Amino acid sequence: MSDIQLFQLLGLAMFSIGVGMLAHPDVLTRMFRSLEHDPVAVYLSGFMSLFLGYALVAFHNMWSFDRSVIITIIGWLALLKGLSLLLFPTSLFSVSKKLTKSDAYLNIFPWYAIVFGIVLLFFGFFA
């Protein structure tokens, strides 16, 4: 998969997540709250993050001073997220409790995801 295709895929995912969170903020809150009672979901999301992160790092570990380094950084972050979810799942519960108590997260993160998605889509389709 080329850099352009990875930017397109990651950009579409981030943009869709952001718009979905804006359209249905109650779903995000319920999702975080349900993680405390569903360790299987935590395990599966950790495994998926680990898998995606490893694939990106294994096939795209390029530390250069151009836009392709963004894919490498996303890969390493996904790999670290997956490892942390699998190794320290209970710490996720305390973080998710703090996030769902604050409306700031629900107001800021969707816009961050949309803007980051647009940047990635720009690199994938126009740059």
Rg result: 15 Å
Overall geometry comes to globular
| Share in helix | over 70%
Order of helices and strands: HHHHHH
Tally of structural domains: 1
Unreliable residue stretches: none
Rounded average pLDDT? 89
User: What structural class do you assign from the helix and strand content?
Assistant: mainly alpha
Straight-line distance between termini: 17 Å
> Count the strands?
0
Number of continuous helical runs: 6
Strand content: under 5%
Main sheet record: none
How would you describe this protein?
The protein has six helices and no strands. The chain is an all-alpha fold. It has one domain. The longest helix has 23 residues, at 103-125. It is globular and about 40 Å long. The relative contact order is 0.22. The mean pLDDT is 89.
List the helices and strands and how they pair.
Layout: H1 3-23, H2 25-35, H3 39-59, H4 69-87, H5 89-101, H6 103-125
Helix pairs in contact: 1-2, 1-6, 2-5, 3-4, 4-5
Q: Which terms would index this structure?
A:
127 residues; mainly alpha; 6 helices; 85% helix
Could you give a short description of this structure?
The protein is mostly helical. 85% of the residues lie in helices and 0% in strands. Helix 1 packs across helix 2 and helix 3 runs antiparallel to helix 4.
